[in-house]
Amino acid sequence: MSHRIGRLALAVLLALPAAASWAATSEAAVRNRTTEPAPALRIPKPTGKLPVGMTSLHLKDTSRPDPWVPSVKARELMVSLWYPAAKAGGARAPYMTVKESELTLKEAGASGVPGDLLSKTRIDAVKDARPAKGRLPLVVLSPGFTKPRYSLTGLAEDLASRGYVVAVIGHTYENVATSFPDGRVAECVACEVEPKNPAFFAKVGQIRAADVTFVLDSVLARYPKLIDRSRIAMGGHSVGGASSVAALLKDSRLRAGMNIDGTAVVPVPSGGLAKPYLLLGSEAKHSPGKDPTWDQSWPNLTGWKRWFVVTGTEHASFTDISVLSEQLGIDDGADLPATRSLEITRGIVAAFYDLHLRGKPQPILNDPASRYPEVKPAG
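^ thats the sequence. predicted structure below, dont judge the formating
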């Protein structure tokens, strides 16, 4: 699948479906726009009651070489850690670095917009805020292939405002640009690997599972008083969500998992996966009979499970990409407004983790249409 679909300023970036979607996401149509001053971009405010802090972690796993660049003798990762802050107020955290914005726009073939446009996207989290006291549940999130960890900011920030610690992993060499604190920038080596077949994405899934275990080790060691080790789960979008199966099988600390609109590149084994699991996807691509990998995985999920599809969504609808497209007046192919898609994603995801990490009953998971008529049980 081509990574370039025209020279339509930022529209090229924001309408681009995830490259990992050999899972069935078609390229969204975009409207031609005349070059205009770029508007200020904003991620919708989180819905929880708590102020949010965010800090960036640079982690180095010296136990293994980088799987994409073996000459690099340690796997280096950047992680965005979101959490409830001790108090409100302070300098806002950046959405992404200027260099990451420049390279993302360049890769997309965007023209007519400032190179730092994406780095100026406004969020609510305070940079390096002091965390609130208390041992909190932890959710690990993994983004789609080629997509930066920032694409899940709207979801991560919301979970943090509800009392979660959230670690969003940037999987180095699998996205357009990863900036390190010393100024180095790692670009997408995995993007150049051909062919992009099931074996390739199975490798991606296993690499991400290893990344998750390493991040858990690192974050738990750094924040022993912040995180409750008995309440940890994972989720993600596209191949990031699909990788949660490999991570749940590998790491006993993960109590539950979630796949948001990702082809099951790591299949649920025939022996079963008994941990709670949620499938959340677009109706057009992930209803029963639409994606064979979900059809095959469903009966092998032997614990608590739900399969929901959302009417009117596309692949990007569950991420910040759709929200930013909407603000720029760009048609990303979805019928459901992006702000509504984010509202639904936040609500369903939070309910899943509230049930399985906090033990709070969530009637919405038995009758989602009572609050979100667009959501339909599929399994």
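The chain has nine helices and twelve strands.
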